[in-house]
Amino acid sequence: MRAALSVGVLAALVVMSLITGIIDLRGDDNALSLLMVSRIPRTAAALIAGAALAIAGAIMQMLVRNRFVEPMTAGTGQGAALGILGAILFFPGAPVQVQMGIAAATALVTSLGFLAMVQRLPTTQPLLVPLVGLIYGGLLAAVVTFVAYQADLLQFIDIWMNGEFSGVLQGRYELLWIAAAVAVAAYFIADQFAIVGMGRTISVNLGLKYRQVMALGLCAIAVISALTVVTVGAIPFVGLVVPNIVSRLYGDNLRQTLPLTALWGAGAVLLCDILGRVSRYPFEIPVGTVFGVIGTAVFLVLLYKRPAHERS
After folding, report:
1. What are the residues whose beta carbons fall under 8 Å from the beta carbon of 257, sequence distance 6 or more?
2. How many CB atoms lie within 10 A of CB 140?
3. Distance of alpha carbon 297 from its chain centroid, rounded?
4. What confidence score (pLDDT) does residue 312 get?
5. Does 1.10.3470.10 match the CATH number of domain 2-19+31-307?
6. What CA–CA distance (Å, rounded) separates 145 from 81?
C-alpha cells in the first residue's frame, strides 16, 4: 500500500515536471521534440540523482553507524569536485569517462579519510560525527575554491557545488544511468550493509567479510557522488533527510526500506526542481539551493526530535 501510494505521488510529480516550463506544450508544433530533448531527460536526471543519492546516504549511515551523515556534506561530494578540478587542470583533453574515474577515485579517498576520523570519535557523543563531517567537507570545499580561484575556474566550481538541472539535455545526462545501476546493485547486498551497521565485532562473529563489504559500500558511495557532481552538481541533504524519514517511519531493515528510500529521494529532488522552476518564473532557482534550505530545516528537526519509541 505504502509503495503504491509513493509510486502514485511520484507519477504525479513526473507529469508536473513534464508540463512545467517556459514553453507551453499545448498547441506547440515542436512539443514532441521539446519533450524528447529537454523535459524527459531533465525529469529522468532528477529521478535518478534523487534516488541514487538517497541510497548512497542510507549506505553511508550504515557504514559510519550514525544517522546524521551523508555523502554531500561529509567530504565525498567535495572530494568528487576536487577530482574533477584536478582532471581539468592536469588532463584538460581527457574524455568525460576519465574525469569521472578521477572524481570517483578522489571521492573514495576523501570518504576513507572521513571514516578514519569517525572511528576515533567517542561513541558516547554521536552528534560529533555530523559536526566533524561538516567541518571536513567545508575544509575540502575551501581547498577546491582556492585552487579554482588560482586557475580562474570559479564559475565551474559554482556549477559543481550547487546542483541544478537547467542544463540537462538529451546526450548530457546519460552517465547518471551508471549511478542508477550502482544503486540497484547495492540493493542486492543491502542485508550485508545492515549487518555492518551493527559494528565490526558483531559482523565478524556472524561470518561477514567486513572489510570487503565496507569497500563495496564506499565504492558505491564514491561512484554515485562522483557521477552526480560531474553531471548535475552537488545536491546536499538528500542522503541525510530521506533515509532518516524512512527509517523513523518504517524501521532499519534495508532490504525492505531501500526501495522506499529510492522512491522518496527521487520524489523529493523532483519536487524541489519543480519548486525551483515556478518560484521565480520564468527564472529558475537551482535545485541544490531549494533542497539546501528545506534540508537544513529538516536536519535541525531530526537533531532535536527523538523517535516516537524513545519518547514513550
Report:
1. 58, 246, 247, 250, 251
2. 23
3. 18
4. 45
5. yes
6. 10
Radius of gyration of the chain (CA): 19
Residue 61 near residue 243, CB atoms below 8 Å: yes
Of the candidates 82, 60, 81, the residue with the CA atom closest to the CA atom of residue 70: 60
Q: Which residue has the higher pLDDT, 44 or 233?
A: 44
pLDDT digits (tens, 9 = 90+) for 69-97: 888 778 787 888 888 888 888 887 777 77
The four Cα atoms 89, 92, 94, 100 give a dihedral, to 10 degrees, of 40
> pLDDT, tens digit, for every residue of 2-12?
667 777 888 88
Q: What is the largest CA-CA distance in the chain?
A: 66
Give the residue extent of every domain in the chain. 2-19+31-307
C-alpha span between 296 and 277 (Å, rounded):
20
Cα(168)–Cα(46) distance, integer angstroms: 10
Q: Cα 300 from chain centroid?
A: 19
Q: Look up the pTM and report it.
A: 0.84
Contact (Cβ atoms closer than 8 angstroms) between residue 89 and residue 104? no
Percentage of the chain beyond pLDDT 70 is 92
Contacts with 213 (C-beta within 8 Å, 6 or more apart), sequence order: 189, 192, 193, 195, 196, 203
